[in-house]
């Protein structure tokens, strides 16, 4: 709250309101667009519903990507390039999704 108070004193009220209102719109838009993707019925089985797994992988990639970007900001000694972060995010989400598909098939 101290940082927000300081920001409010350094910039105009219109800019503060714009930042506070527009910033959450991007994640909200991602969630809404993800939910618009049509899925098959659950009765069809886990492998038949491949669109769910694609969506699962994309959201997992975005989650790890955001977490790694935040870690890079918080830990300056963490010398990772954007390419490395993307590789880690894609690899982690791929393994995560593959394990979930395996669990869904064996359950």
Q: What fraction strand?
A: under 5%
Which runs of at least 5 residues are low in confidence (pLDDT < 50)?
A: none
Distance between the termini: 46 Å
What's the rounded overall pLDDT mean? 91
> How many H/I helical runs?
5
- What value does the Rg take, in angstroms? 19 Å
The main sheet comes to: none
Structural class, from helix and strand content?
mainly alpha
The tally of structural domains comes to: 2
Tally of DSSP β-strands: 0
Dominant shape: flat
User: Helix coverage percent of residues?
Assistant: over 70%
Oligomer: single chain
H-E string: HHHHH
What does this structure look like?
By secondary structure, this protein is an all-alpha fold. The protein folds into 2 domains: 1-36, no CATH class; 42-107, no CATH class. The protein is 75% helix and 0% strand. The protein is built from 5 helices and no strands. It is flat and about 55 Å long. The chain starts with a helix and ends with a helix. The mean pLDDT is 91.
């Amino acid at each position: 709250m101290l940082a927000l108070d300081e920001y409010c004193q350094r910039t105009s009220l219109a800019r503060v309101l714009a930042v506070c209102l527009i910033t959450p719109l991007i994640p909200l838009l991602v969630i809404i667009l993800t939910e618009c993707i049509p899925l098959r019925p659950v009765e069809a089985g886990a492998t038949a519903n491949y669109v769910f797994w694609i969506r699962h992988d994309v959201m997992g990639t975005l989650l790890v990507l955001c977490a790694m970007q935040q870690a890079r900001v918080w830990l300056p000694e963490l010398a990772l390039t954007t390419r490395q972060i993307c590789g880690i995010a894609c690899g982690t989400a791929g393994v995560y999704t593959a394990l979930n598909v395996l669990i869904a098939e064996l359950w």
